[in-house]
Amino acid sequence: MGIIIILSSVRANFDLLGENIETGRRFSVTQDAGDQVQPGISGKTAVWLSKPRNESSDGRVYGEILP
């Protein structure tokens, strides 16, 4: 199974979507507050940097096992 991660800016910030490239099915990876950027994927594990808006923080790294 092949999955890609897509940056989405439909809302006021960047969120991450996953897409199964075999079926075309899209799903939400995260819609947390702030910008979700610099995604990476290995197998079924996605990681990304969550950068809060209006803060001087460098952000935090998060990960999730995808469906």
Q: By helix and strand content, what is the structural category?
A: mainly beta
Principal-axis shape equals: globular
Number of strands: 6
CA radius of gyration: 12 Å
Series of secondary-structure elements, N-terminal to C-terminal? EEEEEE
- Our measurement of the CA-to-CA distance between the termini, rounded to an integer number of angstroms, reads 11 Å
Query: Any idea how many domains?
Result: 1
Mean pLDDT: 89
Helical amount among residues, as a percent range? under 10%
Beta percentage is over 45%
Give a verbal description of the structure.
This protein is an all-beta fold and about 70 residues long. It has one domain. About 0% of the residues lie in helices and about 55% in strands. It has no helices and 6 strands. The strands form 2 sheets. It has a 3-stranded antiparallel β-sheet with strand order 1-2-3, with no helix packed on it. A hairpin with an 8-residue loop joins strand 5 and strand 6. The chain starts with a strand and ends with a strand.
Tag the structure with descriptive keywords.
67 residues; mainly beta; three-stranded antiparallel sheet; 57% strand
Short synopsis of the structure:
The protein is mostly beta strands and 67 residues long. Helices cover 0% and strands 57% of the residues. The chain has strands at 3-8, 15-20, 26-30, 35-42, 45-51, 60-65.
